[in-house]
Amino acid sequence: MSVQNNNWWYAVQAYGGNEEDAREKLKKEFPEIKTFIPKRELEIRKGGKIKKEKKPLFPGYIFISFEEKIDYEKALEVLRRCRTTGLKTSITKFLGIADTKISEKKEVLPVKTEEIAYIFELTQESETINFSKFVKSGTKIKILEGPLKGKEAVIKKVNARKKRITVEIYLMGKTHEIDLGGSLAKDFDLEIT
Fold first, then answer.
1. Predicted pLDDT of residue 101
2. Is residue 119 part of a domain?
3. pLDDT score, position 189
4. Domain range for 37
């Protein structure tokens, strides 16, 4: 999946933990739309055992794509058809609905092309951001392989013990600090410049 053919991507909110169920509801009601739920692979320690799990990059959010820019009425139609009282499969709102000053009409703002393209780049055209391998020398970090290679500037901090790399991602005009999986390269001697 990619940012292709100038499709318009929008972020919608669903109940956290129920993104996949909400996606199925969206696909059933609107078979023509594309959906995207970016995830990150993390190592989680439970009961003394470590296992890899996939967690949503933005819990409670689904990205949906239309071939044309949608208006407020289309957004309301999506909400009406994908809202189920009492069930957690509902889409609860569109992010980025703004009042326009000129016409007093509400406008649905799409996700900026560069923001969604960056997320697709991190997921490497799948839905999961895999582990990155890194080395650390003092306060400098060098990514050796993985989706963060060449993106050291977005790294805010590294926790080698928990195998986490905290990065800064911009979405819908806000900065989000998100933990991604990363492991320290063993037996690797590198001078970081």
1. 56
2. no
3. 47
4. 1-110
